[in-house]
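User: Can you predict the 3D structure for this chain?
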Amino acid sequence: MTDKVDIAALAKLARLDIPEDEMARLETEIPAILHFVETIQSANAPKEEKSPAHRNIMRKDENPIESGKHTKALLDAAPARAGNRIAVKQVISRKK
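Assistant: Here is the predicted structure, written as structure tokens:
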């Protein structure tokens, strides 16, 4: 696992602005990740059997639920709310 990955070139191709300290960390992490992927790809796993031909499994909805019927119960069960929405931790940040 002595492959050297040119993180600066990859970042430029992907149009990403990566700080120098993170580039140094990625230079060691990415080859390890690629090696792991190669290991998984070389695993001798049985081939998945083909599924039968696709078929339409949709049914007519004869008893649709009234829109918003369960909204209050769902919001009351949520750990955090923001108005009429469930509040969740932000997982993606956007640079401006």
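Residues 7-41 form one domain. The beta strands are 81-82, 85-86.
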